[in-house]
Amino acid sequence: MYIDSHAHLDSPKLAAEREAILLNAHASGIVGILTIGNGDGPADIGCALKIAHEVARRRALGERIPQVWASAGVHPHEAMMVDEAARTMMRAVAADHEVIAWGEIGLDYHYDHSPRKVQQGIFEEQLALAAGFNLPVIIHCRPSDGKTDAFDDLFAALQQHWRGRRGILHCFTGGVAEARKALDLGFMLSFAGNVSFPKMSQIRDAAGSVPDDAFLIETDSPYLAPVPHRGRMNQPAFIPETARHIGELRGVSGEAVGEQAAENFRRFFRDYERTRNI
């Protein structure tokens, strides 16, 4: 049993094949998928809700496809697009009880599509919004090459604005030091297919050392397909391969990693009123 804790089912790369993707996921033992609501920017953050609602309708009719949950949030790439209309949209979507988390949000100093000061300000705004609606946050953090700058700013912001609350660092790309700081703040670490990439030794070190109750697994599909699928469009059905790679680092089977991560996911979200039945 596996849960994909982070997928972009709204992606145009997946949309044309979404039917087959959901069927493939079910056949591969995936029981649930958290689809991320970033879309093309603030005006589109309800995109994951539409997919979750449609899947719920189909499951109610007896279709054998995974359960799908929805998040929403403004990605750091689009932070400079936030205006008052966007803030109104964000509050309306956050109030929807089908949204179980706020994100992905955070800091991206690798691409710098939005200025860093703007990213920081919008990130802090969204932390306040999530706190107001009692939602956990899903965080994207990507530093510039060879540096820890985004992680440094991220942890400083969390210490100031999110102390005592919980969240998920998705597609974790830090090393053991960053993992320890995140764990000290009560965060879960979610590992994606890049844990299998030969040059990502720091991710493997973190994945091998994180406590059993503190990790999740994800695809980040359609990106980061794990070896042996690297270079292909990623999809939730590839989660068992990511679990297998993590299992090799932890000395357990991929199936055991999947079961543990699924239990961690359910336990994490059961702490929140909206998601006690997950």
Brief rundown of the structure:
With 278 residues, the chain is an alpha/beta fold. The protein has ten helices and eight strands.
Keywords for this entry:
278 residues, alpha/beta, TIM Barrel, 8-stranded parallel beta sheet, 10 helices, 8 strands, 16% strand, globular
Structure description:
With 278 residues, the chain is α/β, with parallel strands linked by helices. It has one domain (2-275): Alpha-Beta Barrel (TIM Barrel). 42% of the residues lie in helices and 16% in strands. It has ten helices and eight strands. Strands 1-2-3-4-5-6-7-8 form an eight-stranded parallel sheet.
Structure class: alpha/beta
CATH homologous superfamily (4th level) name: Metal-dependent hydrolases
- Strand order within the widest beta sheet: 1-2-3-4-5-6-7-8
Mean pLDDT: 96
CATH architecture: Alpha-Beta Barrel
